[in-house]
Known about the structure:
There is one protein chain. This protein is of the alpha/beta class. The protein contains 14 helices and 21 strands. The chain has a 7-stranded mixed sheet, sandwiched between helices. It has a 5-stranded parallel sheet with strand order 9-8-7-10-11, with helices on both faces. A 3-stranded antiparallel sheet has the order 3-6-21, with no helix packed on it. α10 (256-275) links the parallel β12 (252-254) and β13 (287-291). α4 (64-75) runs antiparallel to α7 and α10 (256-275) packs parallel to α11. It starts with a strand and ends in a 13-residue tail after the last strand. The relative contact order is 0.13.
Amino acid sequence: MSPVLSMDPRTGEQVEVAAVDTAPAEVAQVVARVAATAATLDGLGRVGRTALLRAVAAELEADAAGLVAIADRETALGEARLTGELGRACYQLRYLADAVAEGGYLEALAEPAADTPLGPRPDLRRMLVPLGPVAVFGASNFPFAFSVAGGDTAAALAAGCPVVVKAHPGHPATSLRSIDAVHRALSGFPGLEHAVDLVFGLEAGRAVVVHPEIRAVGFTGSSAGGRALHDLTAARPDPIPFFGELAGVNPFVVTPGAAAARGPEIGRGVIDSVTLGTGQFCTKPGLLFVPEGDAGDALLAAAEQAVREREPGLLLTSTTHATYRSTIEALTALPGVRTTAHGPAGPEVGYAGVAHLVTIGLADLRPEFVEECFGPAAVAVRYGDPRELVATLGTLRGGLTATVHSEPAEAELVAELTAVFSRIAGRLVYDGYPTGVAVTDAMTHGGPWPSTTNSQHTSVGVHALRRFLRPVTWQNAPQHALPTELRD
């Protein structure tokens, strides 16, 4: 079994062997333990699951100092960012606990027997029920909010589904400390001590996905990794749903009017968004469409100056660091690249990521420029005719977000952009910046391929539960056979 190394991004050096890859036989045991809790978790009911979710949040908060310290050592994201992210994870748990207590997520319906124009109709009652055990893959860039006790795990538990988490190799020690907190919370609920458990390693992740007890998979990561796991779920004798949050370039359009009115302000603001978290947010704007002319020049000059002043940040893993550097080298060597702005050189040690802004013309836009670059980089695309811009935007693949900065007099152009963006993005942002995802019912954190594998769902907010539920109808059922929510 291979060791799972805990690394320090600030130095690039190994700190400890946090764990070892989970062996196939042990994977089977973990899944069996988790699956054995499914009936008990469902039977806990909404009141019990509400208490469970709140207990997990309380245990995470009780160990906040230790969790943040070890996560900072493994990710270099900083105490302030990680404290806020842990708070977000706890908020998600409590937010979903409130949703479970309220019960509307069940979509419960009761239609009594009646005569209809089509003849007699039986008594029909319908609601959503848990799918069963769920596999969740932790994300590198959110060691709390999208990891062991993050949004996918919280949604699955709220839906009544136990969880097997495949730990991300970028923060194994954080994952272990997080699962300890979760297990302390679960120990207060008899029979549910292993309603959430953890495995390590690439092969262990694959083994969990194909295990017959697993009924759905939630994944946040690369397009290549997500597609491989998606294909595994589809190739099973009993295919199961795969909910992958993957990649996208998240187009960001500045209209001629907006560039003239506030170009330098937008230029500085968009670079703040591009470089936030060293560019390691799935909502980072990657393609910046800027009009030609003096106003666009001023916007781009402000953006380039902001890039030059941006100190290097730290990337999360050695793989992310190497991929980012090779991607930048490839982009800057492509034909049509007219200008490149970059930040000051980074340190010789650790996983430093230097900010980059590459500039091309609309006619030079090619496939290499419309692939996600995970890191503090973006491509500025200069356009002349807004009609050509709209036509080009219609050829882009899906993204989580699409942003428009405009002025009131440009309503017709904004309507055209909105029509295009509503087909290729899950969230449309106006006169703002897409980094930052609110935890609320109205949030859509999803989008067409390749941003996600299923654009009908969101991974944030109460509607995230819908991924791990399925509808069942009871026909002419006696009262004692009905779930509590469907009884008279």
